[in-house]
Amino acid sequence: MTSNDQSNVKPSLLVTVGSTLFPKLTDTILSAPILGVLAGRISTLKVQLGNAPPPSDLRTTLDNFDGSKGSYQKMIVEVMDYTTDFEGLVKSSDMVISHAGTFIAHRAGLGLCIGLS
């Protein structure tokens, strides 16, 4: 792929909180103002919520939201409690924001992982 081809490809972003909950992070990421900023910059946003429920207004914020997947200005948005293939999910994401610990970056071979607490 040439550098011109790569400039048209938008990266994917995974936000994960592990098995706990961190609604301050997940609710903020899934808010309309933040989704608006991300929509022009990424193709897919996956948010792993852990024990937290999705924000109550997510059904009205996203288009065609079915409880786990919808869209916002052409950006695909997926939410999930857990996944049986967490390492695969991390590896398939271009960027990861994590509250689950920075071990994810080492296990998945990522060069950069942002850990929040």
List the helices and strands and how they pair.
Elements (H helix, E strand, L loop, with lengths): L2 H5 L4 E5 L6 H7 L2 H8 L4 E5 L9 H4 L7 E4 L2 E6 L5 H6 L3 E4 L4 H6 L5 E2 L2
Parallel strand pairs: 1-2, 1-5, 2-4, 5-6
Antiparallel strand pairs: 3-4
Structure description:
- The protein is of the alpha/beta class and 117 residues long.
- It has one domain.
- Helix content is 31%, strand content 22%.
- The protein has six helices and six strands, in the order H-E-H-H-E-H-E-E-H-E-H-E.
- It has a six-stranded mixed sheet.
- A hairpin with a 2-residue loop joins strand 3 and strand 4.
- The protein is globular.
Q: Which class of secondary structure composition applies to the elements?
A: alpha/beta
The tally of helices reads: 6
Q: Radius of gyration, Cα only, in angstroms?
A: 14 Å
Largest sheet: 6 strands, mixed
